[in-house]
Write a structure and sequence with these properties.
239 residues; alpha/beta; Rossmann fold; 4-stranded parallel β-sheet; 13 helices; 8 strands; 50% helix; globular
Length: 239
């Protein structure tokens, strides 16, 4: 199966190893991975900041860059949720509407692609340790991802997953929300960390590095030994 990968801006600029780990996982699952080096952004940052016209230009490039791809997979439910839920609205009453409607059926976050399309739960990964899982708002509310990451993590040898209290509560990042309302954002992250620490976990795992970046910043500020891991890092371990 040929799969085109989309690498979000913050993965490309700040956490490139997450992208490499996703490729490793997809290849382990038997996929032929294709990367279009001309790709840029999905358009979400500009859209959320109110620059809808500029965002539409970026979204149009996304449609062109991934035209013809059977499946598009990304290590970010946030970007996938934006393409699925907002592209049809952005391109409403435009010549690109049909493209937008078609592409929303072909974009997948990594865990849902593995479970829903490839029907794979066990990749042969191993990662000794105790972890708790964080449901990102985009994954949970925009992509309806809940069981998929947990199914994959349950089959990682040596890994113990313990659910934290209020697991579906936002971590406080929310993109520009963290900039505009930083006191509230910080308080929400600290509450998430408190709940994670209560599980006695060593790691917080999520599908979204944006959430983990925010949480990691507070962990460092508070001097906590708790670590963050993207799902792709765990699934790529041990082989």
């Amino acid at each position: 199966m040929k799969v085109q990968i989309f690498i979000p801006c913050f993965i490309d600029q700040l956490y490139p190893t997450i992208g490499f780990n996703m490729v490793k996982v997809l290849e382990k699952a038997g996929c032929e991975v294709i990367y279009n080096a001309q790709q840029t952004c999905c358009g979400q940052p500009a859209f959320n900041a109110g620059f809808w016209g500029e965002s539409k230009e970026v979204c149009t490039k996304f449609l062109d860059d991934f035209e013809g791809a059977e499946y598009i997979v990304a290590p970010s439910a946030s970007c996938i949720g934006f393409v699925r839920n907002y592209y049809p609205k952005i391109f409403d009453n435009s010549a690109h509407l049909q493209k937008a409607k078609k592409i929303k059926e072909r974009v997948f976050e990594l865990s849902e692609f593995l479970i829903q399309i490839l029907k794979i739960e066990d990749l042969g990964a191993s990662f000794p340790g105790k972890a708790t899982y964080h449901d990102s708002c985009a994954g949970l509310r925009e992509c309806n991802i809940k069981s998929e990451p947990r199914q994959l993590l349950a089959n990682v040898a040596g890994l113990e997953i313990v659910e934290m209290h209020d697991v579906e509560t936002c971590c406080g990042f929310g993109g520009t929300f963290a900039v505009k309302f930083d006191p509230i954002s910080i308080a929400m992250a600290d509450q998430k960390i408190t709940n994670a620490i209560a599980t006695e976990a060593e790691y917080i795992i999520s599908t979204d590095m944006s959430c983990l970046m925010h949480i990691h910043g507070r962990l460092q500020h508070n001097g906590s030994p708790l670590k963050v891991l993207h799902l792709a890092e765990v699934l790529a371990s041990g082989y």
